[in-house]
Amino acid sequence: MELNFDLNNIRTTEFGIGMDDMNNQSFCLMAVDSNVQSALREMTLATWNAMIALNSDPPMYEASEKHESQEYVYLSLNDDLAHQMKLLHEANNLTINSNAFEEPTNIFCYFARLTDAHGRRLTALRRATQFKGALKSRFIAWRLMTDALKLVEDKIFRLDNDFDLLIDASNIHILRPNAFEFVGKLQDAILAAVPENIRMIQEDLPFVSLGSVQEYAINRPRAARHLASIRCQEQTRNIDKTSLKELCISTGVSIREVEEKIVIQEGHVMGFLEVLDRRRYKITLVRDSAEIFKATARQKINRGRR
Amino acid sequence: MTDNPHNEGLKAARLLMVLSSISPLFIIWAIRGSKLIPDLYFTVFCGLMVVMPYAFLVFRIRIAKRLAEKRELAIGSAEDHRDHILIYLFAILLSFYAANLDTLRDLAAAFVTIGFIIFLFWHLNLHYMNIFFAAQGYRIFTVYPPDDGNILTNKAGLVLITKRITIPHGIQLAVYRLSDTVYLEV
Q: B151 to chain A, minimum CA–CA distance in Å?
């Protein structure tokens, strides 16, 4: 996968932070000197190099997938789950707030905003984990004319070695999926999207009664993640009713049919979602001894075919 | 998500930029003189009021260039403010030119009035009205971002000092930051 940005020809480098005050996110820029700008560019390059080293053909991010702490996945900027990051990336003339460090406990992320010679923008973002501790830290420093170390108290903010994600005009390139979920407020977005996801899936599956699924998933993040993943991957398109019923029965998901519609029995909603999300399967390697598995992480091998 | 209201940064810098905006007035005063203060002291005072803010302005531009204090501005619309220079000229320079500085009360009144004007310029971010820029062929625009429907986009107008005659809609410029609301394109 290519980055839609020229890392070797950067015109401007801006620095900003994200603040979360009572669940109200805001972003602002802060002025930084050329040395900080240079460090931010190095971090961006290090992030991209780390991504390429992990996987040159990354899979798409799935909300229901169990990701590694560091794993290169991508998500289209037009995806509903990318809404928060898209807002930040596409915002123009962000406010400059030189006093933003006055409330360090509200800071939840910092970011660099790079523009290349062609006017293309790249946003590089890192979840802030050390603001609370490091902003008012005490450091030991060596001083002139004596070899005795002295204690220095100062407001210091330490930059990391790389970013958690990069956003170009088309995609979010994610190096740390957990950080993306945190800064993108994905849990809230996924729960809020349950009714819309149900509506979309229902269009593909008119022969399934999804009322009980919506009721179950509306306040259960795990189920909501499955729904987001199912919809995002368009996994319900062209599903055959008979095949679905057979897979449900063979993997222990209890269903019944009422007026030609599949109704999921109570206590089996998660199992049904795992079936739709291709995470529940049966294998029979030992004769007359079928095994049913649930996959928390899985990868499609024939990726070209649906 | 909301924009955080905050104070405009670079307070001291803005104050000096306001002073540099009204520095032509001190040139006129230095020429006219005052019966109350010996010419030497009054001329030195006026000279300092002219030179120091200008020196600071030049210094601020150099610092911004040296530290590469650049940012990208997306322009949706731009308003030309040549009329501000005229207002500035008539409201400040001509009225003060006519002021009498020969009695203690007049002198005090003149300084208090200047104090009010400085405060207003500083408070209303009008520190970009500067003969220094105009003399070098710069124009002053108030620029607004494109109407992109993004709640994070800062909708407030920013002041752009540039040698361009017009600023086309939709253009993106890399500019130097003189203060949080004033930018210079060189």
A: 8
From chain A, the residues in CB contact with B148 under 8 A are 90, 92
The domain spans of chain B are 11-184
The answer to whether residues A273 and A181 belong to one domain is no
Q: Give the ipTM.
A: 0.76
Same domain, A183 and A203: no
Q: What is the DSSP string of chain A?
A: ---SS-TTSEEEEEEEEEEEETTEEEEEEE---HHHHHHHHHHHHHHHHHHHHH-SSPPBP-TTS---SS--EEEETTSGGGHHHHHHHH--SPPB-TTGGGSGGGEEEEEEEEEETTS-EEEEEEE-SSHHHHTTEEEEEE-TT---EEEEEE------SS-SEEE-SSEEEES-HHHHHHHTTHHHHHHHTHHHHHHHHHHH-TTEE-HHHHHHHTT-HHHHHHHHHHHHTTTTTT--HHHHHHHHHHTT--EEEETTEEEEPTT-HHHHHHHHTT-EEEEEEETTEEEEEE-SS---SSTT--
Highest mean pLDDT among A18-27, A165-174, B8-17: A165-174
A116 in the same domain as A96: yes
> CA of A23, closest CA in chain B: separation in Å?
8
Q: Which chain A residues are closer than 8 Å to B9 by Cβ?
A: 31, 96-99
Residues A261 and A115 in one domain: no
Counted domains in chain A: 2
- Chain B residues with CB-CB distance to A16 below 8 A: none
pLDDT in tens, A117-139: 999 999 999 998 765 545 555 66
* 8 Å CB contact of A19 and B151: no
Residues A92 and A219 in one domain: no
Percentage of chain A with pLDDT > 70? 91
The answer on A163 and A288 residing in a single domain is no
Disruptive mutation site among A38, A89, A93 for chain B (greatest number of B CBs within 10 Å): A93
The model's pTM is 0.80
* pLDDT recorded at residue B8: 56
Residue of A nearest to B66 (CA): A34
A97 contacts B6? CB cut-off 8 A? yes
Which residues constitute the domain of residue A99?
Answer: 10-129+158-189
Q: In A, which residues are within 8 Å of B154 by CB distance? A: 91-95
